[in-house]
Design a protein that fits this description.
single chain; 109 residues; mainly beta; five-stranded antiparallel beta sheet; two-stranded antiparallel ribbon
Length: 109
């Protein structure tokens, strides 16, 4: 497997579906933090078939223009491939009274 080095501008292009090599698989919602927003997304390198997780950031507000990270600085990030894993969640829930057949008072431990 190979890691990729991508810049802010390249990540934004992937998110905006403006890339021939990379295919956007899933884009999350923009998460708000004061005037900054961050969007995490998964994409596929069509030359290798590997899947990666990337992100894009912007500042501003819905009432003004957004300034994307690539307009402020041009950082580069090392992205490692990601793998899907199956997660099983087991939760506990108190049973209904209708299922209780007896009650015991515990006196000794």
């Amino acid at each position: 497997m190979k890691a990729l080095i991508l810049t802010d501008a390249q990540l934004e292009n992937i998110l905006l579906k403006d890339s021939e090599r990379f295919e956007l698989i899933n884009a999350g919602e923009w998460k708000q933090d004061c005037k900054a927003q961050l969007c995490t997304f998964t994409f596929k390198d069509t030359t290798t078939g590997l899947i990666y997780e990337g992100f894009a950031g912007r500042i501003g507000s819905p009432f003004t223009e957004w300034t994307y990270d690539s307009e402020v600085c041009e950082d580069a990030y090392v992205l490692k491939p990601v793998e899907e894993i199956e997660v099983i969640v087991i939760k506990t829930k108190e049973v209904d009274d209708s299922k209780i057949t007896e009650t015991e008072t515990v006196e000794e431990m």
